[in-house]
Amino acid sequence: MHDFPPDVDAYSASAATRPDTRSPARFLVWVLRVQADVVAAMSVAGIFWFLPGALSPLLLGKAIDSGILRGDVAAVLGWSAVLTVVILVGAAAGIIQHTLVVRSWLIALYGTQKLVIRKAARLGHVLGRRLPTGEVLSISSTDSDIFGQTVEVFARLIGSLAAFALVCALMFSTSPQLGWVVLIAAPLLVVAASPVLRPLNAAQTAERTQNSELTSMATDIVSGLRILRGIGGEATFGGNYAGQSQRVRRLGVATGTWQAVTETISVLLSGLLLVVLVWLGSHQMLAGELTVGQLISFVGYALYLVWPLQNFFEFAQKWVQGLVSARKTIVLLAAESPFAEGTADLPSRPRLVDAASGVAADPGRFLAVVSAVPDDSAALADRLGRYLPAEHLTDNADDDELKGRAARLRREEREAQRRAAAEADAQRAARDWGVTADDLDYRHLTGTSLRRTVVVSDTASQLFAGTLQQAIDPWGTHTREQAEAVLHAAAAEDVRLGLPGGWQGRVDELGRGLSGGQRQRVVLARVLLLDPEVLVLVEPTSAVDAHTEAAIAERLVEHRRGRTTVVMTASPLVLHYADEVSLLEDGREVARGTHAQLLDDPRYRAVVGRGMEEDE
What we know:
Layout: H1 24-34, H2 36-68, H3 73-123, H4 127-130, H5 133-174, H6 176-192, H7 197-223, H8 225-231, H9 234-286, H10 292-334, E1 352-354, E2 360-361, E3 366-371, H11 374-384, H12 404-430, E4 435-437, E5 440-441, H13 447-453, E6 454-457, E7 466-467, H14 468-472, H15 480-489, H16 493-498, E8 506-507, H17 516-530, E9 534-538, H18 546-559, E10 564-568, H19 572-577, E11 580-585, E12 588-593, H20 595-598, H21 602-615
């Protein structure tokens, strides 16, 4: 049995525990194989759970023929006692089977979520270049739940097959003709419904794709709501979301229609088989080939067989849903980081040199980088952190509903763009990165040592929902005194004082309850608490007033003294306290010195002069 939460090692060297992403069907088989012991236990419990339904008609017929028709009370009581025992065994097996179902569901649900989390952590910033955000969220929530359903219905199918075989054997022992009817007709009924599965699969795939796009759209709207309000774009984006929501609704109706057709066919065909069995059994009884008890048993068999047959149809339906979810999931799990894992660890207190700009960050120094083009300094920060340059996928779709071939071509176009982006990333990562640590190129470094030593905090850094303490110290590995020290360094004491509950005050998702400046200072305090050897900050004071910015500049330099710090900024208040300032022009370093020394350079004054005038 598995312990909870389930232990699913997504990236071990063992092929038995690594997800099989070669095809959707292989992935579903892997999901079943991972918890084979639980599935086997569910199947055994399911077989005993089905026993009362399979044996009750036989026992009832025996009681009628040997007891009621002959007036033998002892026989009636004996068969009734056997029937009672069978029912009790079935009830106990049902309780065990339900417990195992919940367990297997949770293993599939949380196991899939652990796979997604581990893959997301492994891919890092590359994740958004491989799949939309909504797709990843849908895999973690909706698809993981569908995998649980697939495991449950598979185990139930095993029990149904055993019960079906038992009933067929009982029918053969009494009437071979009726036994052959069931044995031949049942597979034909299942095959007769198979043409419906293809349009059901297509409808579910379309709904799943559009639903993930809706989730991505909602995520983008929520994260950019403040900006949308500022530019008056709420109505436009709200209309786009409403249109996409209606598309998902219509696709949901289409999917539900095909599901209803599948269930209707299963009930109709099962009912026809019941009618045929009752008709044949009645004629055999009139011909003297069956007794009254045996006819009643056959009617019970026929009624009972409706249940296993419907389980067959339900398995086919759930398997199709599982294939749709697996098709999306394996795209994520099969994605690999473009960076080949190096073998060397990052040296302690390294000297970083960026070949593209010529900027060198000496160990233990506070370096400020100034550029008239903010994108140039941001690109430098990405290179120092070994982040691939951002690329956006084109989307030429209009606001009209995309149907049929147009929707398929759009999906294929976006998938082709992502494949091309993955190939471009792999080619870029295969070359020397261009940033060296003590003359050792980043390409030769292990990702673990690089991420542990060099940390980049930019304006895209976000806050998660939780307490203020969790926002600053997510892992809970630091003391209260350390947290208060970084809160002071970031001039964010007012955030703690202003929150009801102080340290335990709630912070909303993305810090929506805080002002822009407060969010920025909490993010700064969080990265300062991490205390990396090399810290790269991008515009850490862009959203605060001059008084607060001056406090942050002085405290930040003091707090990071002895550690390597690179700040991308054009703020004179921060530049004043920096050990050195590097001036970029067209992405290259053209001057270097202290803030006071560079003030004589007209190129430098052109960049920082406006900020100085505002301070005055």
